[in-house]
Amino acid sequence: MAELERTATMLRIIAHPVRLRLLELLRDRGEAPVHDLADAVALAPAATSQHLNHMRRLGLLAARRRGREVRYGIGDRRVLKILRCACAAEGENGASR
Fold first, then answer.
1. Handedness of CA 12, 35, 29, 70 (dihedral sign)
2. End-to-end CA distance of the chain, in Å?
3. Whole-model pTM?
4. 71 to each of 1, 24, 34, 94, how far by Cα in Å?
5. Domains in the chain, number
6. Whole-angstrom Cα distance, residue 25 to residue 62?
7. Model confidence at 95: pLDDT above 90
């Protein structure tokens, strides 16, 4: 049951359009600082940091300090599988409309 609860928590955390976009960006870029990600999602750096920290606390993202900036990257590769499945399922759903 604990594994199902962790999975449910992970799905709840990533089930936000901004967080999904951040995951896509990090999948494509490998690693990026908060200010670059904030520009890409058109949010303030503080708001972007909050989204990133939700995912980091769960272990989905990794963060490392480089000088004064914090760079984020994918911390749990399984989240990329979930992202791929979700995008594929949406593509299938859109094709049937």
1. negative
2. 36
3. 0.86
4. 34, 15, 7, 34
5. 1
6. 14
7. no
